[in-house]
Structures are given as structure tokens and as C-alpha cells.
């Protein structure tokens, strides 16, 4: 086991003392979201045989004597003390805390268990008396070495990840913004459509299945920038290599640099990001938001680690986002995901407005677009 899971040190203690700081606190997944993520990781493990671990902290007895906020604070402290790639949430809402360790770094069970239990009991000792901390049951489950229990696939009613007020405000901005954009860009919309029809055979729109929030599929729209009947296996292999860190030149992001499948007018549309305009229809339909993570292609999931999947589970995909305005195509996949997670953690109407203001400048610069 790597030293990044050593017992609590000074740096972690500082983070635990600043739990109210949104930049240091880690969001705790509710029971449904945690169950979904655990189910996805179990499937990945079955397919690839790459192991992961699940730690459960049973707080049920303590919940009878401690207040709800106190239990929540302990869960938050556990999540804050774990690694960025670990997922913390409610395996059983309000009573059993779960931590999914997506990477084990080749550690064996005794080492993993020793480090995790030591660290967790140190955290508990900050909030509980010695007897309570010692008596709290902490269990570790390794996959695929141990057969998953059916309880890991339990379902519960979906709970809102964000407050109703902020969700309503975000949706209002999405509807108003997409309607305004469609009206303003309607003449350009028609001009681009006519140009595409004149310069190459095929439909005006490119339709593709993408993954929305909670992994729901929807039909993603763009102006067609490629020739029809192209071999998409080229892009599938490129995406696998990009996610696995095998692409030596990541400047093209999810688009292949000098892609032979792209038409001459398509190159201009991609460079100027005008091919993205039809996505305002996706926003109006409720499949996307103006601001959010980039919508994932289904075959990307085959190469995702569990912590990558948080970007499609915890927020509705968007036309623009942190990655598009700050990194665009000039960053690695892992860095892009970290930007998405930072956005999800700090999401607010004010942050959305700031990203929307910065987007035109990123588009006009054309840097990192292909």
C-alpha cells in the first residue's frame, strides 16, 4: 500500500479542522448515488479483474445516541481524510458510512486493512469517546477476492443532490439562455445548415448517443462536421488510449488532430465551435445544461475508473464548463475529470454565470480546438 494512505498526518489534520471550507471538504454521496457507483465499480471489476475495496463503518448504534449533524460531520471527516480517488458516501443513509477505494496500488489485505482501520479509528477518536471509537465496527471487503453481497445492489428512492432552490434556478437559466441563443443565432443556424448541405452529402445534424446524469442515454446533437459512413473505431481506440494516458500529444482532447474523417467546412466549424450550436436544443429538452461536465460517449465507460464516473453521475452534462474555459483540449483526461469534480463540488448559480461569461473568450481564442 502506498504511503498516501498512511495514518493521519499534519496535513490531513489541517483539512479536518477546516471542514467548513468548500475547497477542503469532500461531498458525501447519498445512499442511492453511492449504491449506483458501487454497482458500476463491481461491474468494472468483474469485467477487468482489477481489484478494489469497500470499507464500511457501522454507525447504527451510535446514531441512537448522537445527533444527525454529528454523524454527518463524522462522515464528512472520513471523506476529507481519504484520497481524491476514493469515494465516500452512505452505504446505509445515516447509519453506515461507505468508502470505495478504487485503486489499491498492489497492497495486500493485511496492509490495506491495517492502514485503513488505523486511520479511521484516529478520525473517530476526534469525535467520540475512547469506548465509542473502539466499539465502532469497521469492515473491509475486497473485490473480486470476495463475492459481492446482493445488498451492494440495493435500490432506494432518489434524493436531490442539490437543494431544490439552486436546481430550479439553474434550470430557469438553462431555459432562458438556450431560448435566447436559439433566437439570436437562428440566421447563423440556417446559414451553417445550408453550407453543410451544399458542401457534402449527408444530414445537417450529427446525432450520437451520449450519457446524461445518472448514466441515462440521450440523443446528442451537433452540426455534422464529418463525412458520412465514417469508421468510428478509429475514435474509439483514440479515446481508450487518451483515458489510459497512452496519447503522447493530448492537445487534441477528445478530437483527433488532423482527423481525415472531417470535411473542410467541418474543420472550420470545429475550430470555431459553431458545430456545438444545436446543443442548445438538448438544453431546452432538459438532457443537458448550459454549464456542466462534457457529455460522455457510452464506449468511454469501458475505460473509466470509478472516480471518473462521478462526472456523469453527480451533474447534468453541459455545453461549456471548467474544462472548456480553463483547459479545453490542452489537458489530460484525469485533469479534465478533476476540473469537472471541482465544478460539481462548488456548483452554484454564480459559478455558472462566471463560466458562461468566460466561454466566448475561450471560443474566440480557438486554442485547443480541432
How can the largest sheet be summarized? 4 strands, antiparallel
Work out the count of structural domains: 2
As laid out across the biggest beta sheet, the strand order is: 2-3-1-4
Helix/strand class: alpha+beta
pLDDT averaged over residues = 79
- The shape, in one word, is elongated
| Rg estimate, integer Å | 23 Å
Low-confidence stretches: 10-14, 146-162
Distance between the termini: 41 Å
Description:
- With 370 residues, this protein is of the alpha+beta class.
- It contains 15 helices and 8 strands.
- The chain has helices at 10-16, 31-48, 60-63, 68-81, 109-125, 130-135, 164-184, 186-199, 233-243, 264-272, 279-285, 306-313, 322-327, 333-345, 349-365; strands spanning 52-58, 87-92, 96-101, 137-143, 205-211, 217-223, 289-291, 318-320.
- Helix 7 (164-184) runs antiparallel to helix 11.
- It starts with 9 loop residues before the first helix and ends in a 5-residue tail after the last helix.
Sum this structure up briefly.
By secondary structure, the protein is of the alpha+beta class. 46% of the residues lie in helices and 12% in strands. The strands form three sheets. A four-stranded antiparallel β-sheet has the order 2-3-1-4, sandwiched between helices.
Annotation keywords:
370 residues, alpha+beta, 15 helices, 46% helix, 2 domains, four-stranded antiparallel sheet
Explain the layout of strands and helices.
Blueprint: H1 10-16, H2 31-48, E1 52-58, H3 60-63, H4 68-81, E2 87-92, E3 96-101, H5 109-125, H6 130-135, E4 137-143, H7 164-184, H8 186-199, E5 205-211, E6 217-223, H9 233-243, H10 264-272, H11 279-285, E7 289-291, H12 306-313, E8 318-320, H13 322-327, H14 333-345, H15 349-365
Parallel strand pairs: 7-8
Antiparallel strand pairs: 1-3, 1-4, 2-3, 5-6
